[in-house]
User: Fold these one by one.
Assistant:
Number 1:
Amino acid sequence: MMMHEVWKLLFKKPFTNKFPAKYAPKNVHSYLRRVKSGKVKLVPPIPPPPNFRGKIQYDIDSCVGCGLCAQVCPSKAIEIVRDKKWIIMHCKEGATLAAPLKIKIYVSRCVFCAQCVDVCPRKCLHMSDEFLLANEDKLSRDLIIPGP
Amino acid sequence: MSENYTIPIGPLHPALHEPITLKLEVSGEEIVGVDIFCSQVHRGIEWIGMNRNNAIQSIYLAERVCGICNISHPFCMVDAVEKVTNIEVPERAQYIRTIIAELERIHSHLLWAGVAAHEIGFDTVFHYTWALRESVMDLVEYLTGNRVTKAIFMIGGVRRDISEEGAKKIKEGMRFYLENFHKIEEIYLHDPTIRMRTRDVGILTKKDALKLCAVGPVARASGVPKDVRQDYPYAAYADYGLKAITPDMYNGEVHGDVFDRIIVRLLEVKQSVDIINWALDNMPSGSILAEKNLVKLKIMLKKAEGEGVGRVEAPRGEDIHYVRLKAGEEPFLSWKIRAPTYNNVLPWIPMLLGGQIADVPIVAASTDPCMSCLNRVTVVDTNKKKEFEITKEYMHEQSIKKTRRLMRNGQ
C-alpha cells in the first residue's frame, strides 16, 4: 500500500511552489538586478485566499481620531498622535495641541487580527493582500503607517 | 549491570520541541521509575489578561496559548465570558463555531498521526499524512483568512460567516477526507509493523485513567467514555447528539495502549467529518453576532460582574478557562487556564513503567503532549543517583532501530 503511494509520488510534480526562485541564487543583489532588467522572471507566489489579513492600510483623511482601534488592539501596535500635516499647514508657533488626532500603526507589532478594522466607525482601515513584510529594521519606513 | 541509573530527558521534549524534563530511572534497558518536571509556561499570558488587556484583546491572547489548539482556547475563554455577561449566542454562530472547532480537530489529529509515524521511524507515512492535512489547512485559511491564528471568535458570536461558496468548498474537502480515510486506515491500522510497535506498549488501564484524571483521546483509548461534547454539550453538539469514541467500537476490545490511541484519533477524524457535514446541512440562517456594536459590547463587559467557567473539548482533551470579572474594571479580575496536557502528563508514569527506552518517544507522543499548555511543576519522586545525558537524536535512533528489528523478526 505504502510502496504504491511512494511510486505514485515519484512521478508526480512537486507540490511546493518554488517562490521566489527555483534555486537560491549565488548573489542575491545581482539576481535582483537581472530581475529588474527583465532577464529572469520570479516565480509568482500562490495567491492569498479571499479576505486574507495582510498589511494594514490606513486612510488618514477620513480618520476622526476616536482612538477605538488603539483600545482594542491586542498588541498595542497603534499609537495616537497629532496630525503632522495639519501642524505644518496651520500652526507656525507650535500650538500643536489643537491639531486633530490621528493614529500611527507599527506593523512590526501587528498580529493581523483585524480587530481595529471591525471597530473603526469611519471604515478608514482595511487589510490588504500584502504579506512580504520581513525587514531587518523593525522601525523601517515600510513598517510604519502612515509613512513619514 | 545491577545498579540503577537516572536518565534526564529534556528539558527539550523527546517527541516535541517544547520544554519539559523527564527523569527515568533505568536498570539496564528496563525503566523502573519516572519523574516529570513541568514548566510554568503561560503565567505571563494570564498576567497580561489580568492587568493589561481588556476582554476583547484577551481573545487574541488566548489564541496564542497553543499553536495547534488555537480554536479551543479562545472558544473556551469566550464561552466563560459569555456565561458571566449572559450573552446569548445566535444559533448560526454556534454552528459556525462547531464547524471551525471540528476542522481544527481533523488537522490536529492528522498532525499527531504524522508525528507518531515519525517517532517510530516511518518518515514516508509522516509526509503522506501531512500532505493530507494540507487540504484542511487550506479550508481553514479560506474560511478564516489565516492558516494558524484564525481570529474568528468574538464575545457573542463569530467574526466571519460561511458563504454558500464556502459551504460548497467545505463539503468538497470533507468528501476528499471520506475518500482518503480508508487509505489512512490501511496504513495505520492494518500495517503489521505499526501494530507490532504499538500494540501493548504504553498501557494505561481504565482504573489508572480514572484515578489520574486522564482526558480526551488518552482516556477514551483506555475505555473511559469521557467527552465534554457528550457530557456537557456546548455550541451545536447538543443538537447532533455526539457519542464518545472508544476503541471497542472498532474491534470490540480495549487494551489502553498506543495502538488504541491511534484507533480513537483516526475514528474521531471520521466523526468530525460527519459532524461538519451535518452542521452544514442543518445550519440555520440569521445573524452571527449577538452584539454587532463593539463599543456597546465593551461597555457591557465593563459593567459585568461574576465568574464563569468555559469547558471545551480540545483535540487533546478537556480544556478549562476560569474567568472572573469585576464591575468597573476592564481586565479580568482572575483568569486561569487549565490545558488538557496537564492531566495527560501524569498518566505517563504508568505508561512508561516497565517499558523500554526505545518506546519512550512513541509513548510520550501518544498522549499528544503540548508542553506549552502545561502550567505547574509536578515532582513525583526525587531520588537520583547517577546521571548521564541522553539526547533526542539518540532516542529517535533507538526507536527506529527497534522498528527495524521488529520488521526483520516479523517477516
Note: DSSP finds five helices and five strands in chain A.
Number 2:
Amino acid sequence: MSAEQGNSRNKIKRLCIYALLTAVCLIIGYIESLVNFGFIAPGIKIGLANSVACLLIFSRDIKGALLVNIARILLSALLFGSPLSLVFALSGGIISLAAMIILSKCRQFSVIGVSAFGGVLHNMAQCVVGACVIGVGIFYYLPVLMISGVLSGALVGVLSGLILNRMKSENNVQ
Amino acid sequence: MKKGDIIICAVVFAVALILAVVFFFAKPEGKTLLVKADNKVIYEYPLDVDREITLEHNTAVIKDGSVFMLSADCKNQICVKSGEISKRGECIVCLPNRVILEIR
C-alpha cells in the first residue's frame, strides 16, 4: 500500500514538474518574442525555451523532454501563433529534439555542442518547411540561419550547462 | 566544453561559409523580375527599365538593375528590411502577404 502511494506521489510530482517547466517555456518564449533581434538578421531568435529541453535531456528524462517540448509548441501556437506558425515550430522542434537526444547519447559532446547542433537543425528544418510553403528561393538564406542557429544554440547550451552544474551541486537532480 | 562541441561548431561554420560562397559569388546577374503571389507568377518585368510596382499590399521598386521592396503593410516588415537584390535566383519574400520578388 505504502509503496503504491509512494509511486503515485512520484507520478504526481513528475506531472507537476513537467507542467511547471512547460509554463516556464511559454513565459520565456513570450518574453523573447518581445525582444526583436531583426536588426541582426530578419527572423532570428535565441530560442531560450530550448534550455528546458536541454536540462531534461541531460537529466536523462527523454520522455519528459518530448512531452514538455510538444506541449510547449502546441500551447504557444494556440496562444500566440497561427496554423502556419504551428507547422514551422513543430517541424523545427521535433527534428532538433530528435537530433539532440541522439547526440546526447554520444559521450564526446557536452550540453553546448548538443544544443548548438539542435539549434542548427531547428533552423534547417524550418528552412525546408519554408521552401515547401513559399518556394526554394528561401534556401539562399540558409547560411545565415545555420550560423545564427549554431551561435544561439551554443549560448543556450552554456546557460543550460550553468543550470545543470547548479542542480548537481544542490543535489536535487530530477 | 568538450572537443566534440568545437568540432560541431567548426563543421557548421565551414558548411555555412561554403554555402554562402556558392550562393553569393557563383551567381550571374539576373535579367528579369518575377512577381509571384501565392506561388503563381503574376507579373514579369525587365530589370533594365526603372519602375515602381504597386501590388495589393506591397510596393516594389526596380532601379539600376536591382530590386527592393519600398513598403509593405505587414507588421514585421522583413521584406522591406531585406535590402536590394540583383542576382539570378535571389528573392525577397513577404510571408504575411504571400508575395515573392524573384530575379531570373
Note: Chain B touches chain A through 31 residues (CB under 8 Å).
